């Protein structure tokens, strides 16, 4: 993977993480955390969005399948660091949310990046 590819993956990962975090901050207290099934649905949708953006970036940059693990690490790193900062400063960054939302946000992020890692580790189907 080139430095330019790494830059694009880091940028895409930052943008999609920021969008998911802003969505969570805006709607967690009033909508997302009201019912478990709705929280689970939103976590699945966020994970799907991250996986879609990763896959799209890998296809647009024409990254060989053997390099997807490195690409996934580069894509995930800004979001994981950002999520760590958000979790450390949770009370000041998301003042309207109860303390138990910290764990829910952490799970929200963990599920999303596990899906991206799974996508990167998936073996391609063999051609006939």
Shape: elongated
Helix content, binned percent:
over 70%
Which sequence of SSEs, written as H and E, runs from N to C?
HHHHH
> Regions with pLDDT < 50 over 5+ consecutive residues?
none
Strand content: under 5%
Total count of domains: 1
Number of helices: 5
Average predicted local confidence, pLDDT: 87
The radius of gyration over CA amounts to 16 Å
Structural class: mainly alpha
End-to-end distance, in Å? 28 Å
Beta strand count: 0
The largest sheet, given as strand count, sense and whether it forms a barrel, is: none
Features:
mainly alpha, 75% helix, 0% strand, 128 residues
Give the arrangement of secondary structure elements.
Layout: H1 3-27, H2 36-60, H3 68-88, H4 90-93, H5 101-121
Word description of this protein:
This protein is an all-alpha fold and 128 residues long. The chain has one domain (3-121). It contains 5 helices and no strands. It is elongated and about 50 Å long. The two termini are 28 Å apart.
Summarize the structure.
This protein has 5 helices and no strands.
């Amino acid at each position: 993977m080139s430095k330019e590819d790494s830059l694009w993956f880091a940028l895409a990962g930052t943008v999609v993480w920021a969008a998911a975090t802003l969505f969570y901050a805006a709607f967690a207290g009033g909508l997302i955390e009201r019912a478990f099934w709705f929280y689970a649905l939103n976590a699945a949708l966020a994970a799907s969005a991250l996986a879609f953006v990763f896959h799209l970036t890998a296809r647009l940059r024409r990254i060989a399948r053997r390099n997807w693990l490195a690409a996934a690490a580069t894509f995930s790193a800004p979001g994981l660091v950002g999520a760590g900062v958000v979790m450390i400063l949770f009370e000041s960054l998301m003042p309207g949310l109860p303390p138990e939302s910290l764990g829910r946000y952490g799970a929200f992020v963990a599920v999303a990046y596990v899906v991206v890692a799974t996508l990167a580790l998936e073996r391609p189907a063999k051609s006939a």
